[in-house]
Write a structure and sequence with these properties.
With 190 residues, the protein is α+β, with helices and mostly antiparallel strands. It contains 8 helices and 5 strands. A 5-stranded antiparallel beta sheet has the order 1-5-4-3-2, covered by helices on one side. A hairpin with a 3-residue loop joins strand 2 and strand 3. Helix 4 crosses helix 5 and helix 6 crosses helix 7. The model has no long low-confidence stretch (mean pLDDT 93).
Length: 190
């Protein structure tokens, strides 16, 4: 496992992939190698995923997963790196409160300071109880927050942190968001 997390081939087993798509990781990597996905020239993420969907009938989610796995295994992308070459990480936590309370915890500076102190955050968009986006550190990176209602007083909060500098920033923010979402949960459930 890298400092930024597990490769997708470690998260999705070869057996589960084969059961869903008819081939395991090595089988799909061989298909993509024969097609010339790793080049020259290197095919884009979109081209590879499209090839899997259109020529091999792989559904969208599995086509994306196979493409990411291939890119990671062939050294075309690192864990935590997007298909465009930028770096990002994410975290999530289930909190036993209504979704609107979580939105408020991000947008109300007095509440936010209690669980996310010293955050340089500028809200760009927000839909109460659903989602928000914000610039982070004067816009050098950005966060996206998505809320999934699990019950009247239970919400899954997911944070994506985008436009990070490198793999070290991914590792640091992965840990940061794990700690901060735990603090959010403790504050709101108290």
């Amino acid at each position: 496992m890298s400092a930024t997390g597990k490769k997708i081939t470690e998260k999705l087993s070869a057996a589960a992939l084969a059961e869903s798509t008819g081939k395991d990781w090595l089988g799909w990597f061989a298909v993509l190698d024969r097609w010339g996905a790793a080049g020259p020239p290197v095919r884009s993420h979109t081209e590879i995923a499209r090839h899997l969907r259109e020529e091999h009938g792989v559904n969208g989610w599995h086509a994306q997963s196979i493409t990411v796995g291939y890119e990671q295994e062939r050294g075309l992308r690192e864990v935590g790196q997007s298909s465009t070459g930028t770096w990002e990480t994410s975290g999530s936590k289930t909190v036993d409160v209504p979704a609107e309370r979580i939105t408020e915890a991000f947008v109300d500076p007095s509440v936010r300071r209690r669980w996310l102190p010293d955050a340089d955050l500028t809200i760009r968009t927000h839909r109460p109880g659903k989602s928000l986006t914000a610039d982070w550190d004067d816009g050098s990176s950005r966060i996206s927050v998505y809320l999934t209602v699990k019950g009247p007083a239970k919400t899954l909060v997911g944070v994506g942190h985008h436009k990070l500098d490198d793999a070290d920033a991914v590792a640091a923010y992965k840990e940061f968001w794990r700690e901060r979402l735990a603090a959010l949960k403790a504050l709101l459930e108290a």
